[in-house]
Design a protein that fits this description.
It contains 18 helices and 15 strands. It is an alpha+beta fold.
Length: 499
């Protein structure tokens, strides 16, 4: 999202040229897939964590430029809101003690960055939505100074032709007549990357789509927005509404939103990039000077810049990624549905569960996507976001010769069926048994105690209001201060006291 973009209005106006370039990129991708012009199989993973900035009282801090200057590391980059930064971890092989190595690396990086941020008056907070954010933090003055963000905001408003409104009905209801795109910056994510071969891409993407609802149920950590208690994981509905390019009439016509779960299982990465071209007008129609046909003909790996830029403005919860590293093209599945936080241990538990489970589901003799209708996967996603750890999920019946679907509590589904699969998947990746048991044990305890980040946040606010008589804003602020203390402790959220 933070890639530098510089464009004039004339460049933005040349949509016909952009369409031709985009089609050329897609044609070249198709040739590359047929001719197997991609990297050899590698078990490579990577992750990104979007972070909030707050002061010592847990209130939002609009100063990411000063914080990034203080941190002075290319691992940390700007994000859409001035109260956001992003940490990018270099790719590494998925195997052995990778999760414990990541725990040490992430812990060291975040402690260092937090100390340096403190010199600029801010602290880092890993949470899906910073609970103390208010409407005053959702205006254009809170947008980071990056040409891409400004252009994207202008283009979304131009496409809509009217103000962006929010209407989210959860535990409470939030209705706002007019916000800027910066409201989307309230949603901070954990993004998990997995490099795959073209032949395996569809299986991995389909498997990842099938478990999005379970991921949200287990990892929900965003129950509050602008002082209201909404969904247990409010990010998806906030993202869709704050980035919606459609008017009410276009919604009624069935035009697809750019924040999209999708509508079908796929057979190839090509399917997703083709959908991008077919269904979504370009928000940033900026051309570069590469001729991908000539680059491919010369034996090189084309950047496919227009296709990559367009793909970056369509917010799938599992995004296809085409990239070039060391002169060789590769594909990745980028899993984007999880919120940040609450702790490094929780993040790595979420990652271990995802990588283990997606491996097993992608390799099943009877693939999950042949037994789970796509619309049920979509419903699972919404249920996981709305109800978190208390969600129910549709899932194929288990057992020899079993047919049909059953509706199960997400915790039961995980404990009885999915955790054993995740164990097997991590074994296939070659993850050390001790690390496998430790991180999947965190997932197990979340299910047994029915406590994740969202459940802890909501329970703490309710307890503060009931026992101390605090008004909603004061209770949310006090909860946020306690959350930051728990985050810094490093202990998984299911162990945090509510009192």
């Amino acid at each position: 999202m933070g890639e530098k973009v510089v464009a004039t209005r004339a460049e933005l106006a040349d949509r016909q040229l952009y369409r031709r370039k985009l089609q050329s990129c897609l044609d070249v991708l198709g040739r590359m897939l047929k001719e197997e012009r991609f990297d050899r199989p590698k078990a490579m993973m990577g992750l990104e964590i979007e972070l909030n900035l707050a002061d010592e009282q847990g209130q939002p801090m609009l100063g990411n430029e000063a914080v990034l200057d203080a941190i002075a590391s290319t691992d940390f980059q700007t994000e859409l809101g001035r109260f956001n930064v992003e940490l990018n971890i270099a790719p590494r092989r998925l195997g052995g003690h990778v999760f414990e190595d990541l725990r040490e690396e992430l812990g060291t990086a975040l402690r260092y960055a937090d100390r340096r941020a403190g010199q600029a008056g801010g602290r880092l907070v890993m949470v899906g939505i910073l609970p103390t954010l208010d409407l005053e933090h959702a205006g254009l003055e809170a947008m980071s100074s990056n040409d891409r963000y400004t252009l994207l905001s202008d283009q979304i408003l131009a496409a809509r032709g009217e103000d962006i409104a929010l209407d989210i009905d959860g535990v409470e209801r939030l209705t706002i007549d007019s916000v800027s795109m910066v409201a989307e910056a309230a949603a901070t994510s954990l993004q998990l990357h997995l490099q795959v071969t073209p032949a395996r891409f569809a299986s991995v993407w389909n498997a990842a789509q099938a478990i999005c609802g379970v991921q949200l149920a287990l990892g929900a950590n965003s129950p509050f927005l602008f002082g209201r208690e909404l969904w247990r994981e409010t990010r998806p509905v906030l993202f869709q509404q704050a980035c919606d390019t459609r008017t009410a009439e276009l919604k009624a016509q069935g035009v697809r939103p750019i924040t999209w779960f999708g509508e079908r299982w796929v057979d190839s990465a090509y399917d997703l990039f083709e959908e991008n071209l077919k269904y979504f007008p370009a928000l940033l129609p900026i051309c570069d000077d590469e001729d991908p046909v000539k680059v491919l003909a010369s034996g090189g790996a084309p950047r496919l810049g227009e296709m990559r830029l367009h793909n970056g403005t369509i917010y799938r919860w599992n995004r296809p990624v085409y990239d070039v590293a060391d002169g060789v093209a590769h594909l990745r599945v980028e899993n984007r549905c999880l919120p940040a936080g609450p702790t490094v241990a929780d993040i790595l538990a979420n990652a271990a569960f995802y990588y283990g489970l997606v491996r097993m589901l992608a390799e099943q003799p009877r693939p999950i996507w042949t037994r789970l209708p796509y619309e049920k996967a979509d419903q699972n996603f919404l249920n996981g976001a709305r109800y978190g750890i208390d969600a129910v999920q549709w899932w194929p019946r288990s057992g020899r010769g079993a047919r049909g679907l059953v509706e199960l509590p997400a915790t039961d589904l995980v404990l009885n069926e999915l955790l054993p699969l995740a164990h097997q998947g991590l074994d296939r990746w070659g993850i050390a048994a001790r690390d496998r048991d430790h991180y999947l044990g965190i997932i197990e305890q979340r299910c047994l105690r029915r406590t994740n980040g969202a459940a802890w946040q909501a329970a703490t606010v309710h307890r503060l209001r009931e026992r101390r008589g605090l008004d909603p804003n004061a209770a949310i602020a006090e909860m946020t201060r306690r959350y930051i203390e728990g985050m810094r402790s490093g202990e998984p959220v299911h162990t945090w006291p509510v009192d």
